[in-house]
Design brief:
By secondary structure, this protein is of the alpha+beta class. The protein folds into 2 domains: 4-73, no CATH class; 87-247, no CATH class. Helix content is 45%, strand content 23%.
Length: 248
């Protein structure tokens, strides 16, 4: 196999995606192991010991999955893809670590943001990575591998939303409604020497939390960069049974 530096972007992306997701075969094998463990435990060890064996098998499988996720955060392939400008293709946990490293090292940018969200129940996703220079009032903005530079006015509005969130970094509820558009966001500020992460749902009926306002603002900035015909249909239902269907 060629060295990482010699591989194409497409080849590295394929390797990264195959390593960072649980394959159907691995999932089926895991389910089979759990079932066999249950049968063996009940028939040979008795109900109580069988239950203990089953829980132990599940714990081992969960530990293996956790270990795989941790390995992907420190993957050389992830580092190389980031260097080549594929930040939005990487796991959110990896981007969190990169942002924390930028803040700790006094990275030249004023703010760095990563946001990932998914449209439920019909599918679709959004991945944003932005580097903001508040002195030059410009933003390098990447959405799903597309890049643009935000002008001074758009950057100014974005900085205001960021500062509002950093002043009140409370997290929202990932699922205040059924389905909707759950999001993860991480913001790093070099001047404040702080990294703040939160979750929210863009279909949350609560309008006042800064994290919701920031994520909605980022989603609006991303809309012009999305492909034509890539509009996502998002549906949500609150606790009172009110159904909301919108395009994003």
């Amino acid at each position: 196999m060629p060295q990482i530096d010699e591989q194409s972007d497409e080849g590295l992306l394929a390797q990264y995606q195959s390593q960072s997701t649980t394959s159907p075969t691995a999932f089926c094998v895991g389910c089979l192991i759990v079932q066999v463990g249950c049968v063996v435990g009940v028939f040979f060890l008795g109900p109580l010991r069988g239950l203990g064996l089953l829980l132990g098998v599940i714990a081992i499988l969960l530990c293996l999955e956790w270990s795989n996720r941790r390995a992907m955060v420190n993957s050389p392939i992830a580092h190389k893809l980031f260097e080549r400008g594929y930040a939005t293709s990487l796991r959110f946990e990896y981007l969190q670590k990169r942002i924390a490293g930028f803040v700790e090292s006094g990275y030249g940018a004023s703010y760095v943001i990563a946001m990932k969200g998914c449209a439920l129940p019909h599918g679709g996703s959004i991945s944003i990575y932005a580097v903001i220079d508040s002195q030059q009032m410009s933003t390098e903005f990447q959405i799903d591998r597309r890049n643009t530079t935000l002008d001074q006015e758009l950057t100014s509005h974005l900085v205001s939303a960021i500062e509002s969130f950093l002043g009140d970094p409370r997290t929202a509820n990932r699922f205040p409604v059924h389905d909707g558009f759950p999001c993860d966001i991480c913001v790093g500020s070099v001047a404040r020497n702080v990294v703040a992460s939160a979750v929210c749902n863009l279909c949350d009926p609560v309008q006042s939390l800064p994290v919701l306002e920031l994520c909605r603002h980022l989603q609006e900035l991303a809309e012009p960069l999305c492909d034509e015909g890539s509009t996502m249909l998002v549906a949500s239902c609150d606790k009172f049974g009110n159904i909301d269907i919108r395009k994003m």
